[in-house]
Amino acid sequence: MKLAYWMYAGPAHIGTLRIASSFKNVQAIMHAPLGDDYFNVMRSMLERERNFTPVTTSVVDRKVLGRGSQDKVVDNIVRKDKEDSPDLIILTPTCTSSILQEDLQNFVARAQLSSDAAVMLADVNHYRVNELQAADRTLAQVIAFYLEKQVSLPGRTSTPSVNILGSTTLGFHNDHDIKELQKLFTDLGITVNVVAPKGCSVPDLVNLPRAWFNVAPYREIGPLAAQYLQEKYDQPYVDITPMGVVETARFIRRIQQILAEQGHIVDYEPYIRHQTYEVSQLAWFSRSIDCQNLQGKRVVVFGDTTHAAAMTKILAREMNVTVVFAGTFCKYDEQWLQQEIGQYCEEVIATDDHTRIGDMIARAEPAAIFGTQMERHIGKRLDIPCGVISAPIHIQNFPVGYRPFLGYEGTNHIADLVYNSFTLGMEDHMLEVFSGHDTKEVVTKTLTAAGELDWDAAANKELGKVPGFVRSKVKRNTEKYARDQNLSRITLEVMYAAKEAAGA
Amino acid sequence: MQAVYECETGNYHTFCPISCVAWLYQKIEDSFFLVIGTKTCGYFLQNAMGVMIFAEPRYAMAELEEGDISAKLNPFEELKGLCEQVKKDRNPSVIVWIGTCTTEIIKMDLEGIAQQVESALGIPIVVARANGLDYAFTQGEDQVLAAMARRCPTDPVAEEKKERAGLKTFLPFGKKEKEEPPKPAHAPLVLFGSLIDPVVNQLTLELQKQGITVSGWLPAPRFGELPPLTRDTYVVGVNPFLARTASVLSRTLQCKLITAPFPIGPDGTRAWIEAICQALGVEPMGLAEREAKIWESLAPDLAFLNGKSVFFMGDNLLEISLARFLIRCGMKVQEVGIPYLDRRYQGAEIELLERTCAEMGHPAVRIVEKPDNYYQLQRIRELSPDLVITGMAHANPLEARGYNTKWSVEFTFSQIHGFTNSHDVLRLVRKPLDRNNALNALGWEKLIQEV
Q1: Which of the four, A290, B34, B117, B349, has the lowest number of CB atoms within 10 Å?
Q2: How far, in Å, CA of A58 to CA of A37, rounded?
Q3: Distant-in-sequence contacts of B161-168, Cβ < 8 A, 24+ apart
Q4: Which residues share a beta bridge with A27?
Q5: Which residue range is the domain that position A245 belongs to?
Q6: Contacts for B195 with CB less than 8 Å, ≥ 6 apart
Q7: Closest by Cβ to A36, choosing from B11, B40, B78
Q8: C-alpha–C-alpha distance, residues B270 and A434, integer Å
Q9: Domain identity same for A448 and A386
């Protein structure tokens, strides 16, 4: 048992349902007690989904518990088959019902006998994997389920083509990312063959082997399917996340290489140059005089592995910002993260303990945080701005306007996000004047530490002139200095001495 | 006009009963709620309820892991450890353990363990089984209140002298001299049901107007202030989902239960007060006038709602009371879905509903227990109600198909009780109709692609 106040990733069945509800005309049956079916609420409320979520709960209640749920589950699968004529019905238990250790595989086999739809059991361990791992696995499972039934498979397309793996419901800016990728492939003269799972019909999965290669832009959901397709159908895949100018270019160059390996020679360099210099504003943003003050700013990055890695690279490499630490809640992927960004930040961590992250942020006192909704709240408490860069999703992560994180348009959105998360330009100078930076120790527990220190009229007036957004920081620094010097009265002199001390 | 009952035993959606934590921890100020369940439970509270309070919440998950499920770990040691930490970090006066489906399935003896942990740590632990195997949404509160009722002092005289020696040290205000309220002329009356403070005050004052003194509420704002309960105490519920609490109070603790319609809408509020007056032998004064006055103030809403139809998909067990009030307002109720109906505890409410139907010339109400959401959607398509009151999962899809909807949870969280808040109920009901009337001029009727 562990005490938990906050979870960075949901339980496994949420991942399975994200995949099931992403496909067109697929129904899911949840074998679960009343109340476990809040996935439907998340989908309909967070994503403002207009359609009924294709997930039905076969309710486990006391009676079902007593006599076993086999008939009920089978009946519900068969009933759903008649009602909605889906192509596929996916059965999943939840943490709760998986303890019952019923032979769900057998339920599925029985239901299959009376259903026109294909029926399958999502095969995940509900106590060992989280939402993201379960989603990755379910996607691969569904793909294998369809491909392995095929006797003969279609050949490759005559012109270069690609599958995009990892489009899902309830994903972080996922719809916009996928749209941006599709635009990118159009620009590159590559036909998008299948986008899965979101928006894809399961019968179309048999077309997957037609593509020349796969892209799995997210480290969390998609790679297992891409690996499966590589092993089985010799389809290469790109697992670079095209986020930021440098990584997007690397992504495109890798594609160029894959196409060349298959006999199609292209030169994407002019395209990359054009996008970097003229379309994306990020490169120029980093060079603009306004952003000179970004240099050496200390920030903290936390999120899923994909976004934590990409954001760290952008901040450190493309904006010359100092990343104090970067971390992920995907504990199982620590090694990869270390490898990817070890050189771009002072420390890499993997934990799903939000209090630990909160404490680390409080100690680091960064100028900004790039994290999840949780870090946004930590930032609020500490008065540190935070840009949200990763799931767990929140209704705010479904903006109505177009806000991708991937591709060249994504770089613009990220530039805005970074800009809006910092105090820059002339504002920043006010901070410099009063040494707002680099307070490494917490002075007192309260933010304003009013306590027993006495500010004289002139000092108070001076403090009043400091812009509101940095005032408390200046006050804190000055008071910390005064305490260290055993001064009980703060005068103008003390203020400036504090500034000098901090500068030294 | 007898209601027509049906039990569909279908696949339906409501919130998990552990959601009661969201409002109860706020209500009982010195409490800490520990939900003993899986990741699924925790993610629900955080995500679907959207109530995870980031800064120092007074509730948390005791997340069951593989070792707990396979009984490799000793649940007493585990829970004791967590509660020790909670006691150290938050120092609550009471820890409420919320049992879930999982603790039911693995048959964890929560009550037994709680006793041990209670004596080991010296902090009261109340156990409520708010699981989805047996209960729906608001019934979670019922479980907590039923468990808390057993902690009410049973002998008020001895109680005030002793101040419950064992608990004394944990009650921050334990030593404060209590002002002795004048002894009421009637037998003691305790109200049960969790309402926010303004509504508590409104109902208390409303009864005061009748010369009735409320001696206490269950839950009380502080654990140490739970009202004394004896065989002479009259108890009455304010919410229709508290059947088990009512049964613990009346059967186990031998209190005198007043069965009344619930104080929702002017009609229900009047009937509720009348039933209390009758039980306590108090002659009601000016109630009819008070009710008439409220109805008068509701006239514009009534004119608007008259003849409009409403369909309850069923979610929070407030459905019967709301349906009764809306029928009195002149609306047509096409179906009352409800997760569970306790006909004994809701007896007076059902009677009032049937009487209301007869008086308003409304056809017999169709009450569907444990409805099947799929079949309900088909009925909604056939009946085209003017308004659907539904859980969150179906609201957006229905709205996209041109149906006016209202979230049922809004009735759970809004002030809807008593004369004073009658208008608020109708405001909730009117809001979607008014909004969509305003937007209708644009001609965007159905915002989905027709198949």
Answers
A1: A290
A2: 10
A3: B164/B224, B166/B122, B167/B93, B167/B124, B167/B224
A4: A89
A5: 161-266
A6: B203, B238, B239, B415, B417
A7: B40
A8: 66
A9: no
For residue B167, what pLDDT is reported?
Answer: 47
Of A61, A290, A359, A438, which one is the catalytic site residue? Answer: A290
- Say if the Cβ atoms of A62 and B13 lie within 8 Å: no
Q: B326-378, pLDDT tens digit by residue?
A: 999 999 999 999 999 999 999 999 999 999 999 999 999 999 999 999 999 99
- A434: pLDDT strictly greater than 80: no
Asked if the model's pLDDT at residue A445 lies above 70, the reply is no
ipTM, 2 dp: 0.90
pLDDT of res. B45 = 87
Is pLDDT above 70 for A446? no
- Check if A290 is active-site: yes
Q: Give the separation between CA A231 and CA A225, rounded to whole angstroms.
A: 10
Q: Which of A386, A406, A422 is the last residue of a domain?
A: A422
Neighbours of A372 (CB within 10 A): 29
Residue-wise pLDDT for B371-400, tens only, equals 999 999 999 999 999 999 999 999 999 999
Chain A residues close to B391, C-beta within 8 Å: 41
| Residue in B105, B135, B393 nearest the CB of A99 | B105
- Candidates B14, B79, B374; nearest CB to A35: B14
Percent of chain B with pLDDT over 90: 79
What is the mean pLDDT of the segment spanning A462-489?
Answer: 82
- Taking the C-alpha atoms of residue A406 and residue A255, their distance in angstroms, rounded to an integer, is 16
Distances (CA, A) of B64 to A3, A443, B41: 9, 38, 10
Which residues of chain B, if any, have pLDDT below 50?
51, 55, 161-177, 451
DSSP letter for A238, please.
E
Angstrom CA distances, A443 to A158, A208, A435, A478, B55, stand at: 67, 59, 15, 10, 20
Average confidence (pLDDT) over A160-176: 97
Domain containing A435 — which CATH number?
A: 1.10.8.550
CB contact under 8 A, B75 and A95: no
Q: Is A154 exposed, middle or buried (0-12, 13-18, 19+ CB in 10 A)?
A: exposed
Question: Number of C-alpha atoms within 13 angstroms, CB side, residue A248?
Answer: 30
Q: Are residues A331 and A257 in the same domain?
A: no
Question: Who's near A368: CB < 8 A, 6+ residues apart?
Answer: A297, A299, A300, A384, A385, A386, A387, A418, A421, A422
Residue B324 burial by Cβ neighbours in a 10 Å radius (0-12, 13-18, 19+): buried
- Neighbouring CB atoms inside 10 A of B448's CB total 11
> Of A369, A402, A422, which one is at a domain's C-terminal end?
A422
B61 interfaces chain A, CB cutoff of 8 Å: yes
Report if residue A272 sits inside a domain.
no
The alpha carbon of residue A44 is apart from the nearest alpha carbon of chain B, in Å, by 6
Provide the shortest C-alpha distance from residue B133 to chain A (in Å): 4
| The one-letter amino acid at A338 | Q
Residues A202 and A248 in one domain: yes
Contact residues on chain A for B316, CB-CB shorter than 8 A: none
Distance of alpha carbon B261 from alpha carbon B327, whole angstroms: 15
Whole-number Å distance between alpha carbons of B389 and B374: 15
- Quote the number of domains for chain A: 4
Round to whole Å and give the CA distance between A14 and A10: 6
Contact residues on chain A for B61, CB-CB shorter than 8 A: 3-5
Rounded distance between C-alpha atoms, residue A135 and residue B388, angstroms = 34
Confirm if A403 and A413 have CB atoms less than 8 A apart.
yes
Contact between A7 and B43 using a beta-carbon 8 Å cutoff: yes
Greatest alpha-carbon span in chain B? 73
A451: confidence class by pLDDT, cuts 50, 70, 90: low
Contacts of B81 in chain A (CB under 8 A): 1
Give a yes or no: residue A274 inside a domain: no
Q: Which of A41, A60, A352, A361 to mutate to test the interface with B (most CBs of B within 10 A)?
A: A41
